[in-house]
Every structure is written in C-alpha cells, then in structure tokens.
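[09:14] KT: can someone run the structure on this one? pasting the chain below
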Amino acid sequence: MKVEIDDKFIGQLQSYTTLPLTNSDFEFLAQCFFDIGLLTVDSVLEKHPELTFRELLMMYFRKH
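[09:31] RB: done, structure tokens below
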C-alpha cells in the first residue's frame, strides 16, 4: 500500500528528531506509525470488547 506524505506530515515527522531525514526515512517512519496505529486499535478493541471499530472511528471524527 502506498500512502502520500504531504509537507505537513513531513514536518511532523521531522520535528521528532534533529537529524535530517531522507525520503526512505519518511517512508519507514510512516509505515511504523501505520503499524503502531493498527496495534493500538487491536489492543483497544481487545481491552474493550463492548466497542466496535465504527465507534472508534466516530470518536476519531469527533476530535478532528
């Protein structure tokens, strides 16, 4: 899967380090964030079986 990384996201990723990041660094970090997100969703749904994925999405959209 390919995800387009915009300038805002690049700035956010770059803010986590003082080292200059290359395109491959950004791709690696974006994949890490994606994987962490999936693990987090799995963990939340396991810990709170009364929640559904739809409800998690609604929580997200209410905050953004």
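[09:33] KT: thanks! The helical segments are 7-14, 23-47, 53-63.
[09:34] RB: yep, looked fine to me
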